[in-house]
Structure formats: structure tokens, C-alpha cells
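pinging the channel bc i need a second pair of eyes. not urgent but kinda urgent?? the chain im working w is below, pasted from the shared doc
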Amino acid sequence: MSAILQRQQNLVEEFQKLTDWEARYKLIIEKGKKLAVFPENEKSEDLKVKGCQSQVWLKADLVDGHIQFKGDSDAMIVKGLIALLLEVYSGGTPDEILSNPPDFIKKMGLDAYLSPSRANGLFSMAKQIQFYALAFKSLLASRQ
């Protein structure tokens, strides 16, 4: 099992232990509060995720063949959703990220319990992570 798949499974299990959606939303918000600080001077238009109702910034850096993500939002629940994605995908290689779609979103029930605009935003963030992985995969291939 890949590390990303294992992290997805761990997150689903952590989420399923909670008995109601209020507790689950609390967990999401707590994860968002633990995100590393995203410097204000890096909150540029080119790092904004399109398709999100809230302002969302997502930055990716390739370090020794692994992608390190940073993210932030001006909305607490959205910041928590970013934290979930980063918990799963940060540190993965481009190939690992591309071969492990965000199936955990449905397994956690997030697509059903979030408002339609929040769910669309979450999928836009996941798609942006996939785009970064594809771009870094191309970059790595061009270096060979």
C-alpha cells in the first residue's frame, strides 16, 4: 500500500470514529488551525485556487523528488479542508499523487455533507494538487 493510500485510509478511519457531523466539522477546523503559517507576501493571484468561493492559496515546491504543499484560506472550514488534502498529499512524489485520486473525500462523506459551493471548492483544490503533480512530473522527465 502506498504512503498516500495509507494516509487516506487513516484519515477516513479517524473521521469515522466521530459520531456526528458537528464533531467532524470541529476536527476539520482543528486541522486547519494546525497548518503552517502561509506568509502574507506569498498570497499572490497566481497561487489562488480557481473555483473556490473563499480565497484559497496553494503553493507547491519540489524537494528531492517529493512535493511539499502549503496552503491557506480566509475561511476556517476551508482552511481545514486544505489541511486534509495536505495531510494526504504533501511529501508524495508526482507519480504517487497522480496514481492516488482523492477517493477519501467520498469515503468520508464530505461531498454529501458540505454545501455544494464548498464541495466544488474542495474538488478544485484536489484538482490543483493533481495539476502541480503533473507539472512536476513533466519537469522531472525533461531533466532526464
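so Residues 12 and 107 are 7 Å apart (CA to CA). and Helices lie at 3-16, 21-33, 76-89, 94-98, 104-108, 110-113, 116-143. — does that match what u expected or am i reading it wrong
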